[in-house]
Amino acid sequence: MKINVTKNYNYQALKDDACKKVDAAAELEREKYTTTGATLNSIYQCKIDEALKFEKLSEEDKANVKQKDFPFLFAEMSSAGGSPQASADVIIAAHTVWKTHMARIEHVRRNTKVAIQLALNDKTTIDNLLKNLNFNVTVTYD
Fold first, then answer.
1. What Rg, from alpha-carbon coordinates, does the chain have?
2. Which of 8, 40, 91, 126 is 20 to 30 Å from 33 at the Cα level?
């Protein structure tokens, strides 16, 4: 007599655990492009807000900005080229690069989690989705 030994997995628990692992891996990937700390997040938000506000000014108003109105642009001036415009340009460029990285990571994270949830009750498939998790992909939205 041949006995067929199969494991009875709780596939929903496996999928939930795999999704948690994907989230943890995404967070580690995000940390490559961010500085941790709640205060720094606030500072970065203030910087981009000021830079975008500055960009909306007329050229005449840009030439007459005061430090009290744009403290973060002025704080950035010594490392960004010596003017509020240069500071705004650097901040906006850095923010654009950061958003691109965050969107790429989110794309992979979401698609992998959906694939895990839609996977048939097959542990090998779920394990392979985790094993092949790769955030270093090019994502285009053309």
1. 23
2. 126
Q: Tell me the two tokens of residue 33.
A: 């492009």
| Percentage above 70 pLDDT, the chain | 92
Rounded Cα gap, residues 113 and 15, in angstroms: 9
Q: What pLDDT digit, counting tens, does each position of 31-80 carry?
A: 888 887 778 888 999 999 999 999 999 999 999 999 999 999 999 988 88
Q: Which residues of 43-59 are buried (b: 16+ CB within 10 A; e: fewer)?
A: ebeebbebbeebeebee
Tell me the average pLDDT of the chain: 90
Residue from 118, 115, 133 nearest 25 by CA: 133
Distance, CA of 23 to CA of 28 (rounded, Å): 9
